[in-house]
Amino acid sequence: MIELKNVTKKYNDITALKNFSLQIPEGILQVLLGPSGCGKSTVIKLINHLIEPTSGEIYINNKNINEFNLINLRRGIGYVIQSIGLFPHYNVYENIVIVPRLLKWTKNDIDRRVDYLLDLVGLNRNYKKKYPFELSGGEGQRVGVARALAADPPILLMDEPFGSVDPLNRERLQKEFYRIQRELKKTVLFVTHDVEEAIRLADNIAVMKPGQLASLGSPWDFVTDDKEDYVKEFLGSEYTLKLLTRFMVQDILVQEKIKSKGYIHGFQVKKENTLSSALSLMISKGIDSLEVIDEQEKIVGSITFEDILKNVFRDTRK
Amino acid sequence: MKKIKQPFFIVTALLFAFFLISILRFDIIENVLVLLVKPKSFFLARVSLVEIAKQHIFIVIISSSLSIIIALTIAILTRFPFMSDFEEFLLGLATFGQTIPTVAILALLVPFLGYGFKPALFALFVYGFLPVLRNTIEGFNTIPEEIRESARAMGMNRFQIITRVELPLALPAILAGIRISLILNISVATIGATVGLSGFGTLIVNGIRGDDTIMILKGAIPVSLLALAVESLFIILEKRFRLSAISE
Ligand SMILES: Nc1ncnc2c1ncn2[C@@H]1O[C@H](COP(=O)(O)OP(=O)(O)OP(=O)(O)O)[C@@H](O)[C@H]1O
Ligand SMILES: [Mg+2]
Which of A161, A227, A265, A270 has its CA 20 to 30 A from that of A233? Predict the structure, then answer.
């Protein structure tokens, strides 16, 4: 568990954080969402103890971070820095294995880990010998993510880790990251200013305004109307639609309920597509139901506009 | 790391070869020179050029090693918090020091250290020391902050950051400093003849006194070739360790 208690951070005369408090329970993916300059990176740097708070305390697993050995604390935290910060004189392989080498892993373990990580972030294994200047921004960022995950740390701090990855790979990385986080139950603080990314990944979203927390809750909590104007404005009026990207068709699919009598119009959607893509298809075809198919293109069920209305926001619409 | 184009190696090898020929078989060059300038005294022409070259190179190696070791040590110390306040002072000192003419330093030292090896060694040391110090500090300063930050964030300690990140990244700048230091020392060691240091400068000074052009050239040609050869060797080294991202 990570906990910030009443943290204030001043850079000379700029107050970057003011009485900021946040709790991130173990195994939770906490997204920190907010506009540029509101203090997101400052929060991350404080947890990694790269900077000292002006006042307030920071705890990891109920232990004040001042009591940790600084070097061990950092080696146990995977950190994707905003500007990537790969070592220009190290190739991709050497960059990824920095922490495992500091921790004196065996060559065998390191090699196996690198192959696994390159596959995970979707980089060809022959990238190992490339130097950072030979990589595109998005490729460099993926190496940065692999480097942060390298020693399998229980805590991950990720500062806009997918910012310059192309949309296709970003979506793939988000899905993959969502999957491994849920599987390995890492405690993650994920910084972004992309609302859709926040929705896709978060267990909890913290919306920040300059120096302060504006609102905290699960992605569903933000559908309600009781949020302050600043939060509503920042999340945008399409927030609810964006929330549909969080769901896959299979999440609300009822298998037995295959509709008959021409109710189905013959348009199909894959069961692992998002609900927002299903809705897009309905709107573009002017219909309110779709057949759902699996990987073998076998029809496994159907989905209707009504199903979406009934199931997705069931809990939020009191 | 970059591949170096072959011509660089050829030029460097040729320069070293010419230097060796010039000290081992100056008679070949002399045979050509007598066609152009009138030979004068012959008795001094007997001095062994190899012996002179040895003395010249010896003092350059001694003084440069001293200045490189001490300058690197001081520059590395500025990376530690307790010394970081001195960094700007040292940088200013190095820049200012390099503007004082060599001859002035030599002349100033004679009253204190007398003629001969000692004042020359001291002047060489000071001249070699400043460019290495300056380039090393500046090499450290050009490393982007985010690289240092990510090194810290991953749990590298101060020593690991210096040896694994800062020194390798500053290496091209450090090598450039060493090159400047060596070239300066080769030339200052020549001027050292005016305070009684023996080396190629001795031939030049004696040649000027005796109005003997061949004698002057006997000192000037090898020392120029030596300087050029060392320069081109270091240009190769710097290229080898410079990262393409920065150079191109
Ligand atoms: N080292 C520093 N010195 C002075 N001011 C700083 C420093 N680092 C950050 N700041 C200031 O603190 C505030 C918060 O910065 P921070 O980097 O945390 O913002 P951010 O939310 O990460 O922004 P972005 O989304 O653009 O990365 C900004 O106003 C910034 O100018
Ligand atoms: Mg930031």
Answer: A161
How many CB pairs lie under 8 A apart between chains A and B? 63
Among A75, A81, A99, the residue with its CB nearest the CB of B146 is A81
* Domain range for B223: 6-247
Rg (Cα) of chain A, in Å, rounded? Answer: 22
Whole-structure pTM value: 0.84
CA distance B152 to chain A (A): 7
- Which DSSP string corresponds to chain B? -PPPPHHHHHHHHHHHHHHHHHHH-HHHHHHHHHHHS-----SGGGS-HHHHHHHHHHHHHHHHHHHHHHHHHHHHHTTSGGGGGGHHHHHHHHHHHTTS-HHHHHHHHHHHH-SSHHHHHHHHHHHHHHHHHHHHHHHHHTS-HHHHHHHHHTT--HHHIIIIIIHHHHHHHHHHHHHHHHHHHHHHHHHGGGGT--SHHHHHHHHHHTT-HHHHHHHHHHHHHHHHHHHHHHHHHHHHHS-HHHH-
Rounded-to-integer distance, Cα A155 and Cα A186, Å: 6
Whose alpha carbon is nearest atom 22 of ligand 1? A41
Looking at chain A from residue 182 to 221, which residues have their Cβ under 8 Å from any Cβ of chain B? none
- Name the domain count of chain B: 1
Q: Judged by CB atoms within 8 Å, which residues 43-72 of A form the interface with B?
A: 48, 50, 70-72
Beta pairing class for A14-24 and A204-209: unpaired
pLDDT 10s digit of each residue in chain A, 318 long? 999 999 999 999 999 999 999 999 999 999 999 999 999 999 999 999 999 999 999 999 999 999 999 999 999 999 999 989 999 999 999 999 999 999 999 999 999 999 999 998 889 999 999 999 999 988 999 999 999 999 999 999 999 999 888 888 888 889 888 988 988 899 999 999 999 999 999 999 999 999 999 999 999 888 877 788 899 999 998 898 899 988 888 888 766 555 554 556 678 899 888 899 999 999 998 888 888 888 898 888 888 888 888 877 766 554
Indicate whether B1 belongs to any domain.
no
Q: Is B130 part of a structural domain of the chain?
A: yes
Are B191 and B203 a contacting pair, CB within 8 Å?
no
Q: Which CATH number is B159's domain given? A: 1.10.3720.10
Distance of residue A87 Cα from the nearest chain B Cα, in angstroms:
6
- CB of A83 sitting under 6 A from ligand 1: no
Determine, yes or no, domain membership for B57: yes
Alpha carbon distances (Å) from A100 to A74, A104, B150: 13, 6, 15
Residues of A in contact with B143 (CB under 8 A): none
Q: Which residues contact B30 (CB under 8 A, 6 or more apart)?
A: B45, B214, B218
Residues of B with CB under 8 A from a CB of A: 144, 146-147, 149-157, 160, 165, 168-169, 243-246
In a domain, B143, yes or no: yes
Q: What is chain A's length?
A: 318
What is residue A202's three-state secondary structure? coil
Set of chain B residues whose Cβ sits within 8 Å of the Cβ of A87: 147, 150-151, 165, 169
